[in-house]
Amino acid sequence: MAQAKKSKPASQAPASQGLVSSGGDSTFDEVAAHAQALAQALWDEGADEAASDGEAEIRDLLVTAEYHGQRADKVLAQGVSEFSRNYLQQLLADGAVTLNGKPLAKPSAKVNVGDRLRVEMRPTQQSMAFQPEAMELNVVYEDDDLLVVNKPAGLVVHPAPGNWTGTLLNGLLARDEKARQVPRAGIVHRLDKDTSGLMVVARNRATMDALVKMIAARDVSRQYLAIAHKDWGPRKHREVNAPIGRDPRNRLRMAVVDLAVNAGKTARTDFDWLAGDDQRCLVRCTLHTGRTHQIRVHMASLGHPLVADSVYGGQPQGGLTRQALHAFRLAFEHPVSHKPLVLHAPLPQDMTAALDNWGLRYNPPESL
Description:
Blueprint: E1 2-3, H1 26-52, E2 58-62, H2 72-79, H3 85-93, E3 97-99, E4 102-103, E5 116-120, H4 125-129, E6 139-142, E7 146-151, H5 168-175, E8 196-202, H6 205-216, E9 221-229, E10 237-241, E11 244-247, E12 250-256, E13 268-276, E14 280-287, H7 294-301, E15 325-333, E16 340-344, H8 349-358, H9 364-367
């Protein structure tokens, strides 16, 4: 495959590979000969364009015989192999790739020998997302190896479609120079946007690897406080051991699933009643696994959707407009010093106000 690249002078054409088919097909040979001549022209054209454009970089790829009949996205990955496939997929989605002068609408389209792929190496939303953004972060613990933040409700943890900026990751990059040297700025687990509470963040790669292993081995204790609809009933302690996967009726949410029928993963949560009346309840939730929306799904499966959790059947009440869930306790052995760390975050103002509105008493020591 021939390619144009602004780092090389226009007088040097790249060596072409696979231009003559091994089977001696005369049609391929003829097209390949034309392709070799076109490669030089494309090289000169691409180099001149790159030289005149101080910002954008254009890559021109000429499909040679060895790539005949392959998927366009695979040919693209071979032609600009120094970039990740994820990045190239973003370029495809952004319309930055053309095939024979027309936008490449289907990455799976098959290419023919002599076809021309042109790629504009432009910044994508995702590539621009991982930038420092100064923001106030509530750090409840910090040392040379890790920190623990108390995330407010409404703060997205990681850049994603719809939230490319203003995330916890952006704030960590601005706060800590070390964060730039660690994948995902050291984030090893997540909280939903509208869930508040404690998150541990690594400050170096060794600590990050250790924390990931600890979480996978369930050596990190995570407990939450949740306010849910309906009277809890006489059983103060309940254990839910029910697999969670994509809801087969609504792919935008999760659900308890039958693993014999649907894809999913095992999930276990323990629940303990702390306060309540005949319309709502405050419960402590202890995670034993970390599935997407685990507490929200398990509570809904018990007939107790969280207050204001519209995705799983909850309704706004008591002034709460976000799901009433708060990660209030985090406990683990420090991966470097091996000292026990037990950290707490007080119930946020919106959940406290709701309990006060209902006349429910919350005693923090009783929740430990």
